[in-house]
């Protein structure tokens, strides 16, 4: 028996059990061992039936007998009834309004029952208790969980269940794996010296402590080990990707630092020291001919776009290697159409004086700058014409959404890829944009989310990190507050003061519509439409409130069917 062996090669499985295991995504021995308990029960808090007293909350273990469904004699309330027996006696159980329990539970199965003890007709019974199947009925002796190393184990795992796969089934089959000796030769992916350094159990010990703990510290140590292993393997994979990428060839941008600094010097505002350092670092890496991979992290307003513009300027000012003509290309990917459009307008302002062509491509829009009719503005063009010009290398800078990495979008001389707001853009996506000669473009990923350096190593282990930790002169500090519900009215009053002073505000909600109770689970998350209605009717009656969300048409006019578009709302705002 090996960890990667299929379960059906070692255990007799019914068709229903195979279906249940598939639903739980359990196919191999290792899948079963890594199916973690959802919680742990504690038999040290249980008692025996003979010791039960009226009115107390108690837990017992025993075998279930005499399952039946019936209705109340007078009330006609549907119910399930049963008895539970242990070595000291028997007690009745009744579940009002839950007759299905008599069909779900198995006659003679071992169970744990927890609830309030009631009395009726001079005998005790449990009314609507919690009940779950268990693998074994433990000896109930009242011995403390921490009575010593030799104390009997009083903790037992409870697993999430599905049809034909109970918690007890999972427990029994994991114990069979333990007894088979499968874990004796298991290979631990974490080196011994690392286990020792961080006081982590071996893989074999962690599996045992996870599924058969003797004390609380056991399963806590096992969870810590598996959490460490997950992060360790992610980082290892990222380092492998980094090593593979370093062997590849990228575009060598000659004099990138000088060209980028010249551009920065012509900007109508001074750069911060952090911006200058980031531009220097990015440009220097572009000069090496090896693929640059960098995460630029900075708060809103710290000037990430200016850094992207300066380094982009160095790229569009260069020619393909070995040639004295032609343009290198840049792909700038934004998370939404609105942001992509805003970046398009920003780069028009940055590069208006240059003899280069720029384009915007999203799911619903294709624009080009400059326009033949209006050289100072952009114009709409067909998608087919846009794709043709990009493929020919005529368009130097293409800004868009994920539409940029569709199969139809082909670049001729792509040298630089900029990803805005934490889009995960791994080796596979990058290779989609690679040139036919195998040259990999430089990558700059930008985010305003403050990520601790240690966490960034895990999430973005394949990227180097540049930090914009200074704000441009005159910028106020970004303040983020968490406001409790009892302070909400104070916030509304502060917003009202700002609105009266001629300023603006926007409210972000996690969903567009209220959930359909027949199709979706109730989620405590406000919707755009209902929150806008509530604010207009109850809070800011004197102010105009509009809504905008991803389901609205990008543009107005006949194409939108007369509906208000995102473009119209943004322009009005």
Report on this structure:
It is a single chain. The protein has 573 residues and is of the alpha/beta class. It has 17 helices and 17 strands. A hairpin with a 2-residue loop joins strand 3 and strand 4. Helix 8 (256-265) runs antiparallel to helix 9 and helix 8 (256-265) crosses helix 10 (304-316). Mean pLDDT is 85; it is low at 142-151.
Set down the secondary structure blueprint.
Layout: H1 15-23, H2 29-33, E1 39-42, E2 57-71, E3 78-86, E4 89-96, H3 101-104, E5 110-120, E6 123-127, E7 130-133, E8 155-158, H4 167-179, H5 192-197, H6 203-211, H7 216-246, H8 256-265, H9 273-286, E9 293-298, H10 304-316, E10 329-333, H11 337-351, E11 358-361, E12 366-369, E13 379-380, H12 383-392, E14 397-400, E15 414-420, H13 427-432, E16 442-447, H14 453-459, E17 464-468, H15 488-500, H16 528-539, H17 566-572
Helix pairs in contact: 6-7, 8-9, 8-10, 9-10
Cα(first) to Cα(last) distance is 66 Å
What class would the helix/strand composition place it in? alpha/beta
Biggest β-sheet, characterized? 9 strands, mixed
Envelope shape: elongated
Number of helices: 17
Strand content: 15-25%
Low-confidence stretches: 142-151
List keywords for this structure.
alpha/beta, 32% helix, 573 residues
Task: Provide a concise account of the structure shown.
The chain is of the alpha/beta class and 573 residues long. The chain has 17 helices and 17 strands. It has a 9-stranded mixed β-sheet with strand order 13-12-11-14-10-15-16-9-17, sandwiched between helices.
């Amino acid at each position: 028996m090996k960890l990667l062996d299929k379960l059906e090669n070692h255990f007799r499985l019914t068709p229903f059990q195979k279906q249940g295991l598939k639903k739980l995504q359990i196919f191999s021995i290792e899948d079963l061992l890594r199916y973690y308990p959802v919680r742990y029960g504690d038999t040290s808090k249980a008692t025996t039936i003979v010791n039960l007293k009226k009115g107390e909350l108690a837990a017992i273990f025993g075998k279930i007998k005499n399952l039946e469904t019936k209705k109340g004699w007078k009330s006609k309330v549907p119910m399930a009834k049963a008895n539970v027996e242990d070595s000291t006696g028997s007690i009745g159980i009744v579940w009002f309004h839950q007759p299905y329990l008599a069909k779900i539970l198995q006659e003679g199965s071992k169970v744990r029952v927890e609830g309030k003890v009631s009395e009726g007709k001079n005998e005790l019974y449990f009314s609507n208790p919690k009940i779950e199947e268990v693998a074994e009925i433990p000896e109930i002796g009242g011995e403390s969980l921490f009575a010593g190393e030799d104390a009997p184990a009083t903790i037992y795992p409870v697993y999430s269940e599905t049809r034909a796969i109970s918690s007890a089934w999972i427990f029994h089959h994991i114990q069979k794996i333990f007894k088979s000796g499968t874990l004796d030769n298991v290979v631990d992916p974490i080196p011994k010296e690392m286990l020792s350094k961080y006081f982590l159990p071996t893989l074999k010990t962690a599996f045992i402590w996870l599924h058969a703990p003797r004390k609380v510290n056991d399963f806590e140590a096992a969870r810590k080990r598996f959490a460490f292993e997950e992060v360790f393997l992610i980082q290892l994979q990222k380092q492998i990707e980094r090593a593979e990428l370093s062997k590849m060839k990228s575009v060598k941008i000659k004099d990138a630092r000088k060209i980028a600094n010249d551009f920065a010097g012509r900007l109508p505002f001074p750069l911060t020291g952090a911006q200058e350092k980031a531009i220097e670092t990015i440009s220097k890496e572009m000069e090496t001919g090896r693929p640059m991979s960098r995460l630029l992290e900075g708060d809103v307003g710290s000037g990430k776009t200016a850094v992207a513009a300066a380094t982009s300027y160095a790229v569009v000012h260069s020619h393909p290697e070995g040639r004295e003509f032609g343009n290198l290309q840049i792909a700038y990917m934004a998370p939404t159409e609105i942001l992509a459009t805003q970046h398009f307008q920003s780069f028009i302002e940055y590069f208006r004086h240059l003899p280069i062509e720029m384009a915007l491509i999203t799911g619903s829009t294709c624009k080009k700058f400059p326009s033949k009719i209006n050289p100072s503005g952009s114009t709409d063009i067909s998608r087919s014409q846009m794709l043709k010009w990009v493929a020919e290398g005529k368009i130097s800078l293409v800004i868009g959404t994920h539409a940029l990495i569709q199969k139809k979008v082909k670049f001729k001389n792509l040298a630089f890829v900029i990803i805005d707001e934490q889009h995960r853009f791994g080796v596979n996506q990058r290779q989609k944009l690679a040139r036919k000669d195998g040259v990999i473009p430089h990558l700059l990923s930008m985010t305003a989310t403050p990520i601790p350096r240690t966490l960034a190593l895990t999430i973005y282990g394949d990227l180097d990190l540049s930090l914009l930790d200074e704000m441009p002169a005159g910028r106020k500090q970004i303040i983020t507050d968490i406001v409790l519900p009892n302070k909400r009215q104070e916030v509304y009053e502060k917003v009202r003061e700002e609105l009266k002073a001629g300023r603006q505000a926007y409210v972000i909600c996690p969903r567009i519509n209220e959930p359909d109770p027949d199709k979706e689970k109730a989620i405590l998350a406000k919707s755009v439409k209902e929150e806008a209605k509530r604010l207009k009717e109850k809070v800011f009656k004197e102010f105009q409130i509009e809504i905008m969300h991803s389901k609205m048409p990008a543009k107005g006019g006949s194409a939108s069917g007369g509906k208000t578009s995102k473009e119209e709302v943004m322009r009005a705002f």
